[in-house]
Design goal:
The chain is mostly helical and 152 residues long. Helix content is 79%, strand content 4%.
Length: 152
């Protein structure tokens, strides 16, 4: 039987995962709406199951949570690509990891933490992305200048 709190947890995880995923989708990233939504929902479900199974044995609760973190870390590692001396996908991997923690917060009934974390994540992904591109161009120009200097 699904309890009202559990229903709220999985609905909130779905909405918050979709919110982060929508930003990723609009940004044209491979891990978009569906991926982030499903990771968030899955982490919430695992946390609910873990919480219910661990009743009376708190040690089991932390073991399952640790496995969620490890498993999602492995999933995120698959999103990282090394190409021509550069690394791509780090933000996607970090987003996957973060979305799983938001799902775990929902499953653990830490609703305010989940909502605030989602809002901060969206602000970071949207706002800092605009700052990062010009900064990245500046750094590349500086590296090019330094590589073109003749040694003394």
């Amino acid at each position: 039987m699904i309890w009202p709190d559990d229903l709220l947890s999985i609905i909130l995880a779905t909405v918050l995962g979709a919110a982060v995923g929508l930003e990723r989708e609009v940004s044209g990233k491979a891990a978009g709406l569906r991926t982030n939504l499903l990771i968030c929902l899955g982490a919430a479900v695992f946390t609910i199951i873990s919480r219910d199974m661990a009743t009376g044995n708190e040690g089991s609760l932390t073991r399952i949570a640790a496995q969620i973190v490890t498993g999602v870390g492995f999933l995120g590692a698959g999103a990282i690509i090394q190409d021509r001396g550069g690394v791509h996908g780090l933000t996607t991997a970090a987003t996957i990891w973060l979305v799983s923690s938001i799902g775990m917060a929902c499953g653990g009934r830490f609703y305010q933490l989940a909502i605030v974390s989602t809002l901060i994540a969206i602000l970071v992904l949207m706002g800092l992305g605009k700052v990062a591109k010009p900064l990245d161009r500046f750094v590349k120009k500086q590296k090019l200048k330094n590589s073109q200097k003749k040694p003394d």
